[in-house]
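INTERNAL AUDIT FORM
Audit reference: QA-55
Scope: verify that the stored structure record matches its stored sequence.
Auditor: D.O.
Record contents follow.
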Amino acid sequence: MNIAKFLDHTNIRKNATAEDIKRSCQEAKKYNFRGLCVNPQWTRLVKEIFQREGINSKIVTLIDPPMGLSSHQERVEMAKKAREDGSDEIDVVMNIVDLKYERYDKILKDLKEIAKIAPTKVIIGSGYLTDKEIAKASQLVKESGAICVKTATEKDPLGHSELEEKAKHLRIMKENAPGLLIKAAGGIRTLKDVIWMIENGADIIGTSSGVEIVEEAIRYQL
């Protein structure tokens, strides 16, 4: 098992500096992660470094955390800018308030337009949702034309100690969005966590602990 190929290595710290992002790019180069996920202001820098150094990881831009509350037009513009700056994929947060109020047509209109701009992974904020809402959100993501449904951002209320609940969420997402990729994120810090998430349906893992996880996998010869 090549653990790095499951990992979207993540640096979305608000206080990240250009030097921090450059370091994350070098980590992506060294460990050959599936992707590197950054905030929008860093996408262009990451693209420049990846092109210059021949780094093959995907460039992933996080859009509208933590609750997806920007206007539809703002979200579309953010997605377009990310694509223009060099994103291979965008991770966009579904409007969680709209989901709670069952504004499904509004959600679909928003996500369908965004999904046409770039390959889109939709964050549903599963830690804020009931099982029924997770199922419905996953169905909406499937209908939108996105490529993937994702649990959460770093603001996931489910911490490291609640990964069992996250594993249940992954199974619900898999059942209700057949054919889509499933991404688990939030509180995933160790090799054991990653394997557990994969066993419960995750195709991609978002984590800021990518280096530590891959080093652990190397020690165990995985």
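Auditor finding: record pair retrieved intact. The beta strands are 7-11, 35-38, 58-63, 89-93, 120-123, 148-150, 181-185, 204-207.
Action required: none
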